[in-house]
């Protein structure tokens, strides 16, 4: 299994690691700061650096062949197993993901409907809500601005699977369920605003989200309303 340093500290942008496997278009490391594609959030990009060479990390994915392992997709001939490397995350891209992902949690607080789809990228975020109710774009923007300005602390903790089972209302997503089998589940908490299972990367205070704008509200189907976010300017 790959030690997932990003789960505990989303501000960590680099770490030393060792190549422990090759395949699936890249290399597996014993530890990493790179978030793998999942939960609607894009995988991190960045670089692997050894004494002799530098490789571009084009994407980060969960291994399909080895549960618990994370594959770093790289350009060029991969480093050999046993090679010590430095992992470096593309910092501006990571920060965009952190801001957008936290902003989607604010949307969940403002819109009390189940979520049936999401996408978090470097340039936009979207969240699909299962409802036939219309959304007021101006009211939603005002709500986001207020929650950002209120500077709510953002943190995470771990609860047992039994605790989650006892509080099924914590799960807002209809399409992505928290991973099972590890005995514990990571929950993201925005103090006084939102609490739900989430494994993604986030800012540490809502003020760090900065200026985000509701760029579009769409009716995707009879029971789906989509909200799209972008950065101001």
Secondary-structure map with pairings?
Layout: E1 3-4, E2 14-23, E3 26-29, E4 31-32, E5 46-49, E6 54-62, E7 70-74, E8 84-89, H1 91-110, E9 115-120, E10 125-130, H2 137-149, E11 154-160, H3 161-166, E12 184-190, E13 194-197, E14 212-221, E15 224-231
Parallel strand pairs: 1-4
Antiparallel strand pairs: 2-3, 2-8, 3-7, 5-6, 5-8, 6-7, 9-10, 10-15, 11-12, 12-13, 14-15
Helix pairs in contact: 1-2
InterPro entries: Ala-tRNA-synth_IIc_core, Ala-tRNA-synth_IIc_N, Alanyl-tRNA_Editing_Enzymes, Thr/Ala-tRNA-synth_IIc_edit, Transl_B-barrel_sf, tRNA_SAD
Protein name: Alanine--tRNA ligase
Cofactor: Zn(2+)
Placed side by side, the strands forming the largest sheet appear as: 2-3-7-6-5-8
Topology pattern, helix = H, strand = E: EEEEEEEEHEEHEHEEEE
Approximate shape: globular
The secondary-structure class comes to alpha+beta
User: Could you name the CATH topology of the largest domain?
Assistant: Threonyl-tRNA Synthetase, Chain A, domain 2
End-to-end CA span: 41 Å
Report the average pLDDT across residues.
94
Percent of residues in beta strands? 35-45%
Instruction: Please state the oligomeric state of the protein chains shown.
Output: single chain
CATH class of the largest domain: Alpha Beta
Query: How many distinct domains?
Result: 2
Secondary-structure arrangement, i.e. CATH architecture of the largest domain: 2-Layer Sandwich
Are there runs of 5+ residues with pLDDT below 50, and where?
Answer: none
